[in-house]
Amino acid sequence: xxxxxxxxxxxxxxxxxxxxxxxxxxxxxATGVFTSLLNQIxxxxxxxxxxxxxxxxxxxxxxxxxxxVQGEQVMKLDELANETLVTTLGRRGHCAAIASExxxxxxxxxxxxxxxxxxxxDPLDGSSNIDVNISIxxxxxxxxxxxxxxxxxxxxxxxxxxxAAAGYVIYGSSTMLVLSTGREKGVHGFTYxxxxxxxxxxxxxxxxxxxxxxxSINEGNASRWEEPVKRWSDWIKGDNKAEGRPYGGxxxxxxxxxxxxxxxxxxxxxxxxxxxxxxxxxxxLYEANPFAFLFEASGGMATNGxxxxxxxxxxxxxxRTALVLGSQEDVATxxxxxxKERVS
Length: 344
Ligand code: P6P
Prior knowledge:
By secondary structure, this protein is an alpha+beta fold. Helix content is 28%, strand content 24%.
């Protein structure tokens, strides 16, 4: 019987960098550029987690007083995270351009042919929860460039099914990076050990249960919902032991936290369109698509209420969408209500 303690076993375990490299070695066609880009994102996550963990001490809380393209107050940590990602991804020559929630336009880096990828991200999702110490996160997607021409916004405006990789970092009770390079490669979680400065494989091959027991939606929007959403909400809270209802209600108010719980435990997260947000609130390119990519790779499902998120053809960088993520059975039931195929 090994006498290695749990912690030591983790330290002797698989780091994110090794896992990515071995993934590359498993794909001889990989040139190493993609692998190196993923390692850059992991390095940026380490820098941002350091900033987030020090936020209370380093007095980076509070508002800069500026307003971003979303019309929201920009918090200092938002800016710091954005700058960190832009700077880190600007190095090594793998990334041709960046799209960020914090930038009105794409940030052009290089047209060099060796820069084969573009990266879209929300640098700090849930920033309104920063100063009340609720989990926040970073969400990213990696897309191959269309051709060897100059990189343009068109390189970003492709359906999410064309993503080469997607993932997120959740800055919660611990910092965890969750990543997928596609359905055939699965979804894997890596927990950060700050004493070593490395992400270690902690959740290999995450699978989302086919059916869950929690629902996650902002009930404060109920008066603005369309009738089918109201009927679904009444149904999921109805008393039917045989069908496992009522589901438990869980809502953090940070997409990364609500989606992370749903990815691991199953159930359903929904941010539907409503009278206040007729297009939905969440952003297609750097919030919905990366999570839709992950949920489909983990055996879950992602729609805008009726149609597959990954099939949506984007037309604008910051366009919004309704978003429903979760267990296949739970998301399918939501769609039945939205299509008026059922009313209870
Ligand atoms: P509401 C955070 O501001 C965010 O963009 C997502 O992280 C989160 O899911 C959503 O907005 C919460 O919005 O309207 O429920 O506060």
